[in-house]
Amino acid sequence: MTSSTAIGSGGHDALRFYLTKTVQFIAVLATTLFGLVAVTFFIGRVVPIDPVIAIVGDRASPQVYERVRQELGLDLPLLQQFWIYLKKAATGDFGNSVLTTNPVMTDIANVFPATLELATLGTLIGVVFGIPLGILAAVKRGSLIDQFVRLLGLVGYSVPIFWLGLMGLLLFYAKLDWVAGPGRLDVTYSYLYTPVTNIVLLDTAMQGQWDAFWDALWHIILPASLLGYFSLAYISRMTRSFMLNELAQEYVIAARVKGLSEMRVIWRHALRNAAVPLVTVIALSYANLLEGSVLTETVFAWPGLGQYITNSLQNADMNAVLGGTLVIGATFVVLNLVSDLLYRLLDPRTR
């Protein structure tokens, strides 16, 4: 066999490999999303909430009740309802919200940027402080610094975030007046800019409305810091674990024997290898903040997806609840799969 033939065969094998992996990735994504839609739909049908009552009220006549029930397709067999819902969901149609009368996806497009803004800032806080603290705890293993970082992470995992939110509002807003109160922006500044991305910090900065920008920043800093603390607890713990594992490896011992400085051993060698699994940790932490900010948004009256789902659930608006839950679940699934893909790309050993 000639060298050109061998190269051509190797290229075809590589192409076939990547095509197979791509097909597998799409198949896993589609199967997971289908399972998510199925579980969400059937849970929504068995909960003791009647969407018809939410629309017509409890004093409507039986004739009106039955007519609306037929219009919603609730008189059909459950599997047929699921098939209809699945076809509509595939096109992004989750029905209309009872509360707003708007299409659910329109409402979600309006409120999701607020959740995205809050979770993104919280994740940045968790990464900026969590990784250095984790590294420091690993390097100073067994010291008071290590014990402090571990205690900080334990408190972040143990204390309910809604309690931290209430205490934060009481101390930093009501008592000290260091931050703004609940909400996303004071009414005074809400008409000074034109929503483009619906991410207030970004829109106000792009349009040069700095008074509105600073007001939005003072509103978001406390809830984002609480979410960042929750993220910090997870990231610092995992960073410490990864660094302890790397610092015990033979290549670190060899680097120290060669006379490399401790800072270079830690930052150029140990952290470089620990950063590969950290990508997955950060992605999962971000996904957790996107799906777990419901209580934070409720406490701070933050007009995001979490508060939208909570208000919809309290008013038996099941179309909105199912649509919002699916968006959060799909976001988590996609971020999880993307983090797994990045892990494989960054670490040749997994390939």
TrEMBL record:
Annotated membrane topology: Multi-pass membrane protein
Main location class: membrane
Cell membrane as a keyword of this entry, yes or no, is yes
According to the entry, every stretch annotated as the ABC transmembrane type-1 domain falls at: 112-343
Entry's transmembrane regions: 25-43, 118-139, 151-174, 216-235, 270-289, 320-343
Q: Which Pfam families match?
A: BPD_transp_1, BPD_transp_1_N
Tell me the superkingdom of the source: Bacteria
Question: What InterPro entries does its record include?
Answer: BPD_transp_1_N, MetI-like, MetI-like_sf
**PROSITE patterns the UniProt entry points to:** ABC_TM1
Q: Which UniProt keywords apply?
A: Cell membrane, Membrane, Transmembrane, Transmembrane helix, Transport
Location of the protein in the cell:
Cell membrane
> What CDD domains does the database record attribute to this sequence?
TM_PBP2 (cd06261)
Signal peptide, first to last residue:
none
Protein family membership: Belongs to the binding-protein-dependent transport system permease family.
Q: What is this protein called?
A: ABC transporter permease
Write down the species: Microvirga splendida
Species classification: Bacteria, Pseudomonadati, Pseudomonadota, Alphaproteobacteria, Hyphomicrobiales
